[in-house]
């Protein structure tokens, strides 16, 4: 049976059929004549050496309604930057492209002027890409997605773009969702941290509009979204892994429900997966979980006094432990029904790691507060306050 369930708070656009690709492209070309579509791709330099990014860019080069591609990258030397620029230009063919070298000297200076010492991360790359587009005067649509998708297809772009571009839909923000499954369930930070943590907050705080908003998203940590560029340029986002949660919170603050939606991208996307070895904790997963948990706690409790926030977080932690155990059981049942591999020890190790991250957050909130590190002012606010940054940002693009 096709899934056409509508959440009471959030318009959900399901994948129920596959439109003719050529007809859909022609439709989008017509609808975006006055609203150029920029594809913003945040990436580490290492993606240039892996198979996903070359395939993505070669396919994007053939998409007629994408007017330009902005690659916002970090983690590379000057020599690597030059090589990456040449490779990406080759893969994109004639498609207009800009490369933002976020840890190069020119963009380091921009980041320093905006936020003090530069804190690298995906959020910083997204911020730089939006600021660059706005500095150039872009007033259209921005699409963004991850660059490690191994089974990429351009239907992802059309599904994200369509709700923003179509005049009768007229959404200002569309969040992509999809299944993280192959021979087993993936997406552990979403399944075993975010979902039970949101419910734990609800049990402690009672009904809260922001929590109800976050709960309505099927994959809140997905990296895929499309937005009206003016809208997204007024979002305040952090530099690191809290980006996706912070962006959904900004959507809640700036938009009406009728202006936002979530879109079923339509198939299982194969990303790289972090592996937890039995009995060990993978540091990258834990640091990502800690960033996400801190960002969520900050967004939910931002108006609380620090002392009150600490006591509330300890109550939330206890409820999280119970909810995470329940969620583990539910996902084990899903795996068994579908004949998938389910490693209960590995899932338990993930929950233990997430619990540890939350315990550290509870311990440090009294001294460090709930402020999210490197939470950036909005791109439009920065450019209004310091118009000279426009030319500096444009000049820094390669």
From TrEMBL:
The record's annotation in InterPro entries points to: Nucleotide-diphossugar_trans (IPR029044)
> Which GO molecular function annotations are given, in alphabetical order?
transferase activity
Question: Which key words are in the record?
Answer: Transferase
Protein's name according to its UniProt entry: Glycosyl transferase
């Amino acid at each position: 049976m096709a899934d056409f369930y509508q959440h009471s708070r959030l318009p959900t656009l399901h994948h129920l059929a596959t439109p003719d690709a050529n007809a859909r492209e022609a439709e989008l070309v017509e609808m975006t004549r006055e609203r150029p579509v920029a594809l913003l791709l945040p990436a580490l330099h290492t993606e240039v050496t892996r198979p996903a990014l070359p395939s993505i860019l070669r396919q994007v080069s053939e998409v007629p309604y994408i007017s330009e591609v902005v690659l916002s990258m970090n983690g590379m030397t000057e020599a690597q930057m030059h090589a990456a620029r040449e490779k990406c230009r080759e893969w994109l063919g004639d498609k207009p492209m800009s490369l933002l070298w976020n840890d190069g000297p020119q963009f380091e200076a921009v980041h320093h002027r905006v936020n003090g010492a530069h804190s690298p991360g995906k959020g910083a790359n997204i911020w730089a890409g939006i600021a660059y587009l706005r500095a150039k005067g872009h007033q259209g649509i921005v699409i963004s997605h991850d660059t490690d998708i191994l089974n990429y297809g351009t239907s992802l772009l059309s599904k994200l773009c369509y709700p923003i571009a179509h005049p009768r839909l007229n959404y200002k923000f569309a969040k992509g969702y999809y299944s993280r499954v192959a021979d087993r369930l993936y997406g552990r930070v979403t399944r075993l941290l975010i979902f039970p943590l949101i419910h734990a907050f609800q049990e402690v705080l009672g009904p809260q509009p922001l929590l109800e908003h976050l709960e309505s998203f099927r994959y809140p940590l997905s990296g895929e979204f499309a937005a009206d560029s003016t809208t997204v340029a007024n979002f305040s986002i952090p530099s690191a892994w809290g980006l996706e949660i912070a962006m959904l919170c900004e959507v809640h603050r700036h938009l009406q429900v009728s202006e936002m939606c979530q879109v079923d991208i339509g198939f299982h996307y194969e990303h790289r997966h972090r592996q937890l070895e039995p009995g060990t904790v993978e540091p990258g997963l834990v640091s990502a979980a800690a960033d996400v948990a801190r960002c969520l706690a900050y967004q939910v409790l931002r108006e609380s006094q620090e002392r009150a926030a600490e006591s509330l977080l300890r109550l939330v932690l206890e409820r999280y432990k119970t909810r995470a155990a329940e969620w583990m059981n539910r996902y084990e049942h899903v795996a068994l029904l579908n004949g998938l591999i389910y490693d209960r020890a590995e899932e338990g190790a993930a929950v233990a790691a997430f619990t540890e991250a939350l315990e550290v957050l509870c311990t440090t909130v009294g001294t460090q507060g709930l402020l999210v590190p490197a939470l950036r002012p909005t791109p439009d606010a920065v450019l209004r306050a310091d118009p000279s940054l426009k030319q500096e940002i444009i000049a820094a693009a390669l």
